[in-house]
Amino acid sequence: MTRSGRFDWIARSARVVLIARALRAFATGMLSVVIALYLGQRGLSLPQIGLFLSAGVLGGAGFAALLNAGVAKVGRRITLIVITLLSATAGAGLLIDGGVVWLLGCAFGGALAGVGGAGGAGPDQPLEQAILADHCEPRRQPALFALYRVIATLATALGGLAAGLPAWLGAADDGLTWLVGIFSLCLVTVAISYAALPASVEVERARPRAVHPLRSPSRNLILRLNGLFAVDHFGSSLTTVSLMTYWFHTRFGIELGGLASLTFATQLLAAASMALSVRLSSRIGLVRTMVYTHLPSSLLLVALGFVHSTEAAIAIWLARGLLSQMDIPARDSLTMAVVAPNERIAMASAHLMARNTVGIAGPVLSTALWQSLSAAAPIALGGLLKTGYDVALYVFYRNLDRYPPGPRHGGGSGATDTPSTNGG
After folding, report:
1. Does position 3 have pLDDT exceeding 70, yes or no?
2. pLDDT at residue 389 in the model
């Protein structure tokens, strides 16, 4: 007699992806809290810290541009292992005292796009999302993508909490170096996890091959949706986790231990809200879930730059944390649902390229505005851009909620902009 578990519907390949994502998120969450402080300790100025974060995002964009070619030559599993080991090597390179140019090279060569927080994402995400979508029945996809994000967010919270250990142990200065080393070791473990992926994650030769975003039958929808997402990501790149922890530190004097606790609490709230995203999207639709939860968080971000008390700033930041990521599982499900299976990597890689391309300038512009005007300027600008994105998404794409999760067409030939046109 076999026992039926609550998560028996999750395929083995998806379980491996979830484990790898948790390990990577822990490492990235830990480093994102301390990276600006670590670079400042190494002698980098605020504009140079912005350049470092932008270099990582630029590397992520470069990897994304090569992603389809890499998958076609060596497959998904090997591609995931290689890019993860490159990031691990780059993390170890940060420990070498090689000057500013060396540090920028590590950020770029290792595609350290995620260590700054919301400014960019690594090239592993499109492959992971395609694997999840390929090994899950359409009706289960919103739940699987929500689980993927909740696990990652909880792991990020634990990583952020772990970043405070050096301060709590009385070794804040030396501890930053240790945390960078732990980051690299965690990524090596992630690469080992990817090696456990089954052969079924590769696209079968009998199935249509993955296509380039510009040659995809759904290219209009892919480009327009991701162009809109790019506005949101640019707003996020002005207020990355690393820059915001630096802001809390310099404006309100919150030290490493307090920053770690604040990051932990924020990510816990985000994880709890993501768990509600599936229920909400099943009731009101994916696009409405994205807009109705993200718009209030965007307005809270605008307000954050103008508060003067530590208590008010923390309260607004925590309230925003409760709302700001509820849209992510719905967005993941939407982007995978509106294209054919062989277009999923095209959609996800276009999303990554758009996110990282606009994120290149974000940290540099943010630090420039910070120095020339005030710290409130990039925070308010980021919030206003994200507010504009929310309004435009609802106006032009709300009719996509008429379609249930899962491809609306066969063979990748039917995805068009018709739903969005009707909804505009």
Report:
1. no
2. 93
Higher pLDDT, 419 or 130: 130
Confidence of residue 20 (pLDDT cuts 50, 70, 90): very high
SS3 track for the chain? CCCCCCCCCCCHHHHHHHHHHHHHHHHHHHHHHHHHHHHHHCCCCHHHHHHHHHHHHHHHHHHHHCHHHHHHHHCHHHHHHHHHHHHHHHHHHCCCCCHHHHHHHHHHHCCCCCCCCCCCCCCHHHHHHHHHHHCCCHHHHHHHHHHHHHHHHHHHHHHHHHCCHHHHCCCHHHHHHHHHHHHHHHHHHHHHHHCCCCHHHCCCCCCCCCCCHHHCCCHHHHHHHHHHHHHHHHHHHCCCHHHHHHHHHHHHCCCHHHHHHHHHHHHHHHHHHHHHHHHHHHHHCHHHHHHHHHHHHHHHHHHHCCCCCHHHHHHHHHHHHHHCCCHHHHHHHHHHHCCCHHHHHHHHHHHHHHHHHHHCHHHHHHHHHHHHCCCHHHHHHHHHHHHHHHHHHHHHHHHHHHCCCCCCCCCCCCCCCHHHHHHC
pLDDT at 410 exceeding the cut of 50: no
The confidence band for 164, taking pLDDT boundaries of 50, 70 and 90, is confident
